[in-house]
Every structure is written in structure tokens, then in C-alpha cells.
Specification:
Number of helices: 5
Shape: flat
Number of strands: 0
Low-confidence stretches: 138-142
Oligomer: single chain
Distance between the termini: 37 Å
Mean pLDDT: 85
Radius of gyration: 18 Å
Strand content: under 5%
Length: 142
């Protein structure tokens, strides 16, 4: 830990962007409307958010789910009933809540990316609090 507090980005943070991405952005914008209208984009982004959120918890050692349960949660949605009691060392309801917290934070990050929310010290604190909304360890009865 460096002990240095988090500070806001400089006012000209856009200058940090890579200018080579312009043509790719134009291609994406050309295709986006069709994907949004068909519902394909919304379905894709929801599944991707679930996948990233589950993988984050697994990488951080918050929970451990097998591949089949992970694939089911990505495909069908975050639902404690899909996890099962024997799948993890934590109650399925807690695992589902933690995964949903990660999804919520990811949604918040995309608010910044879309320009709906400025990046600030307080915003980072909000995201951090959302990530830690549910306790990461509990004692199971037994």
C-alpha cells in the first residue's frame, strides 16, 4: 500500500486517450443501432456483465463455483437457486448478492464510460462501497 490518497483525474483527461481507436469507434457506431434494435446487444452486455462479475469473485477468492454453475449463471442470470448448497463454502444467497454487487459496480463504471457520470474521488468511493456491500466471509452452521 503506497499511502497516497486517490485524487481526481486532471481536467484534460481526454488527452490520455489513444487516437488510433477512431476508425474502430466509427465501425462500432455504424453497427450498434442494428444490434440494439434486435435486442442482441442488450442480451450480450448482460451476459458479459454476469461473466465478468462471476470471474472477478473467483479471481479474488471470494467464492469458488464450478464451470457448469458459472455457465448456468451467465446464461440464465444471477439466481441463488441455481448455485446449490453444496457448491460453495458460502450460502448461495450471499454468493448471488456478491455477484450482483459486482454487476451493479460494472453498470456504474459504464455510466462513466458513456459520459453520464464524471469520475471523481467520491465516485470511486461509491464504487468501492458497492463492491463491499455484502460481507465476504460468514460462518456456516454445522
Amino acid at each position: 500500500m503506497c499511502g497516497k490518497p486517490i485524487t481526481d483525474l486532471p481536467q484534460d483527461w481526454n488527452a490520455l486517450a489513444d487516437g488510433d481507436l477512431g476508425p474502430l469507434l466509427q465501425l462500432w457506431n455504424d453497427q450498434r443501432a442494428d444490434l440494439e434494435q434486435s435486442g442482441i446487444l442488450d442480451n450480450f452486455t448482460q451476459r458479459l456483465a454476469r461473466e465478468w462479475s462471476i470471474e472477478t469473485g473467483q479471481i479474488e477468492g471470494v467464492f469458488d463455483l464450478d464451470h457448469g454453475i458459472t455457465a448456468t449463471l451467465i446464461e440464465r442470470g444471477i439466481n441463488a437457486d441455481l448455485i446449490g448448497l453444496n457448491q460453495a463454502s458460502k450460502p448461495p444467497e450471499l454468493i448471488a448478492a456478491i455477484i450482483q454487487d459486482h454487476v451493479d459496480v460494472l453498470d456504474g463504471l459504464f455510466q462513466f464510460i458513456k459520459g453520464d457520470r464524471p469520475l471523481s474521488k467520491s465516485y470511486i468511493h461509491e464504487l468501492h462501497a458497492a463492491l463491499l456491500r455484502h460481507p465476504r466471509s460468514v460462518s456456516r452452521p454445522g
